[in-house]
Amino acid sequence: GDSVTQMEGPVTLSEEAFLTINCTYTATGYPSLFWYVQYPGEGLQLLLKATKADDKGSNKGFEATYRKETTSFHLEKGSVQVSDSAVYFCALSDRSGGFKTIFGAGTRLFVKA
Amino acid sequence: NAGVMQNPRHLVRRRGQEARLRCSPMKGHSHVYWYRQLPEEGLKFMVYLQKENIIDESGMPKERFSAEFPKEGPSILRIQQVVRGDSAAYFCASSQGQGKETQYFGPGTRLLVL
Predict the structure, then answer these.
(1) I need a labelling partner for A96 at 20 to 30 A (CA). Which of A3, A21, A71, B113 fits?
(2) Sheet harboring A62-65: ordered strands across?
(3) pLDDT of chain B along its 114 residues, tens only?
């Protein structure tokens, strides 16, 4: 079945450092791909999405490109802030999976001032 | 436009009691999904409902758990005879339609079973 694998955390960075969180997926169809962010004690917020190959999703300085050839959707940000500290989830939604969203295990990011 | 609403936000139950979690989807959304998040883990799909219909319950435990989405009112996730292992955060999401529609998540209900 469909699955999402993302790099284990925690990831600890200093403010203004470059961020990459790797995400790869397995899907039988052509999924839509998502990054969600979860701040402490809160629900998930959609950060960005891409619906087809080579699409780039971007929001709040974060971006990720849908790479079909490598089945990847890595999250990047050029300069992180303390306020970016959160857990980041890579996810996919696919017709063959009945449209339910399949999540990776999450990567916790700590940004130090 | 209000987002997905869940209540209660926190729920404490003793072993053997019933837990009832409510979810009101975003206005105009007729598709509801329930997910469970255990501590330090990702979200696991439980059930997908449309109005008055269960579409996919492949992630629901076979016993004690049930879900409904009536014609009127919120979606309900019901856990009977709760056990300590049911302690988790339960998230509801809604979408406007089927397909590659984005799901929007509620703030979750954190269930603690004593």
Answers:
(1) A21
(2) A19-21, A75-77, A62-65, A56-59
(3) 578 999 999 999 999 999 999 999 999 888 999 999 988 778 899 999 998 899 889 999 999 999 999 989 999 999 999 999 999 999 999 988 765 577 889 999 999 999
